[in-house]
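Form 7-S
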Amino acid sequence: MKKPADSTIINVCVIPSVEVGAECVGLSQALKATNPLFVLDGVNKFAHMTVFMARFADDKIPEVIQRVQAVIKEATPFECRHTGYFLTSGRYLEVSYRKSKYFMWLHESLISGLAPLRINPGNPYEEGYFTPYTFEQQQNAKETGYDLARGLYRPHITLTRWAEGKVPEIFPGFAPAKLSFQLSTVCVFKADNNGAVYEELARFSI
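Output:
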């Protein structure tokens, strides 16, 4: 399928505290010697946690922002509790967070508000971040626009990714880090074909 014209991937994400964001940048920078595809720098590539992401027609973006704002008005602050690290099958290294009922409320509320607005509902364009694309991911993408929705959703902050066959066999040891934080900021960003954010459209406080 050809990529829909006049459309943009929108990433609604949690921004961690300044302290946790800096810790994540430091962890990512420590992986430079392993030759990853990217590292966080706190400026162009910064710590963030996707809550919902999908492609929308450009003329729907103002309504997307309004609906995110409506969800945030109903939200209350909660702890984002660090639970460890995870290397995905797609070669991403992530900081993992507990999948709490509060996180799932925010996730499901954004799906309910935004999924009806997405472009090509039921037949989404296969984004670069959909790969590898399992049957359950396909179903999620068709139903919500986001392949890692609902049962597959996992709160996380991506530190880096490696090319095929380049994942190191031994990782540098991470010093103990305090990566839990109180959720207080949700942003709406434009994202590229791999789901990486690049332009802030709106910022809301909880």
